[in-house]
Amino acid sequence: MISKGCEQCAKGGKMVLFVYGYCDQRDCFYCPLGENRKNVTDVYANERKVESDEDVIEEAKRMSALGTSITGGEPQEAMAKTTRYLELLKDEFGEDHHTHLYTGITGGRENMRRLSEAGLDEIRFHPPLEMWGDMHGTEWEDILHIAREEGLTPAFEIPGIRAEPEFLEFLDEGAAEFCNINEFEMSDGNYRRMQEEGFELQEGHMSAVEGSKDDAILEEMASHEKVYFCTSVFKDAAQHRNRLKRMAKNIRREFDEVTDDGTLVYGKAFADPARFEALGVPEEFYTVKSNHVEVAWWLLEEMVEDGDLAEGEIVEQYPTADGTVVERTPVA
């Protein structure tokens, strides 16, 4: 891994803090934001919509976050919230809580100073595609030096659209610390515009774009010692899955099973709670909800098989704040 932030992300230890979805200066055809994130003044900590400062801290604790990755839109109004959250996280978790910001604007010295003073460690710039290859002598070169002067680690993070040697020049000159290349991806938010630009999905893949891992990018850029190529498979198989496992480990009940994918599995029955007490089910193996009882899935199967319960279902769900259900399997 190139940076501390990437190492933490690979472990599933990076909370993603989304601050607003407006971009004042950009309208990138490949922007992946979906309807609930694009052109909004909402904040999300992972999947949790943030209503208060406590939501941010609670989400970080839910996953035992090692650090925070801040992303979103670029309105100036978002700066106040971003610095507020940076200060909040450092106050709560200390200097070891690594933070990095992904941004599509240069920002200027005053913003770099404010971010640094608030506790930001690393800033990753994403220059507009039309500037690639022509950034020397512009604000994009200047901001790298300004960020470093203000105590931040400057870097690039770009989509793998094409190989661009100028990024390597900035690395060799010492202006940027590293460059992350994300595998070019399609999403619900950019699918139509991506197709209009002539891009198609890789055969047999849910999100990766055809040609986004071509030899030019891999040979010309990803072989550089300060370049890291982050694939869509790695994001799903390592980053996302490991984050779910961290959450599941923290919130699981005695009777929840944690799967290899980081989901939680338990049983659900609609019998009278008194039935479980009468059957002598230990208290740690079930919990009473408003209109049902949640119980160890294997115990539910056994009880239905023995005729102690008429029916139920086995539930698999994410350990996220919204508790999205992945699958329901009837037991009768």
UniProtKB/TrEMBL annotation:
InterPro entries cross-referenced by the UniProt entry: DUF8061, MJ0021-like, rSAM, rSAM_sf
Record GO terms (molecular function): catalytic activity; iron-sulfur cluster binding
Pfam families for this protein: DUF8061
UniProt keywords, alphabetically: Coiled coil
Any coiled-coil regions, as ranges: 234-261
Domain DUF8061: start-end pairs: 262-331
Keyword NAD listed: no
Protein name: DUF8061 domain-containing protein
